[in-house]
């Protein structure tokens, strides 16, 4: 299995826009910490080491500390697809509650606007932090793509999934 350092080196060599986190620490907003209390160790370590990771096309990117804290230059918020789903629910309180509960379970880690709006997220209720993929128009319908975050990085490096 690939290490985070190996992924960073691969990303640099593959012309990805990747910036390392020089402070080697991460401080997520209260909103994120309160909502997602048990972020898997591997992803937290990734956030400690990676400040920014954007595809060559600039249409896909990992969500990092600045995105979660609302300090990024990227136009979409870290929870943009939840916001879009809530807007679609309009005044339907039951539907809104279902959407919020769903997103409480799935922590977005990567967003893409390449061809369609899509994302990868960590299933916070799974034992190992299973990674799922979802896309428009039904963001809340997802497919499992990796058993854990490190396997997800390996899948990206193997080009089984695009970054």
Automatic annotation (TrEMBL):
Residues 39-154 form the Knr4/Smi1-like domain. InterPro entries: Knr4/Smi1-like_dom (IPR018958), Knr4/Smi1-like_sf (IPR037883). It comes from the Bacteria. SUPFAM superfamilies: SMI1/KNR4-like. This is SMI1/KNR4 family protein. It comes from Clostridium muellerianum.
């Amino acid at each position: 299995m690939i290490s985070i350092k190996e992924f960073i080196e691969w990303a640099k060599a593959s012309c990805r826009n990747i910036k390392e986190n020089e402070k080697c620490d991460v401080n997520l907003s209260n909103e994120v910490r309160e909502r997602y209390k048990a972020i898997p160790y591997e992803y937290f370590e990734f956030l400690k080491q990676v400040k920014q990771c954007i595809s060559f096309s600039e249409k896909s990117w990992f969500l990092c500390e600045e995105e979660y804290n609302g300090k990024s230059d990227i136009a979409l918020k870290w929870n943009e697809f939840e916001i879009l789903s809530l807007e679609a629910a309009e005044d339907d309180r039951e539907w809104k509650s279902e959407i919020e509960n769903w997103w409480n379970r799935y922590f977005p880690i990567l967003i893409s606007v390449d061809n369609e709006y899509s994302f990868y997220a960590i299933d916070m209720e799974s034992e190992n932090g299973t990674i799922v993929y979802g896309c428009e128009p039904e963001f809340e319908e997802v497919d499992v793509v990796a058993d854990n975050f490190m396997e997800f990085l390996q899948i990206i490096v193997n080009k089984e999934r695009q970054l």
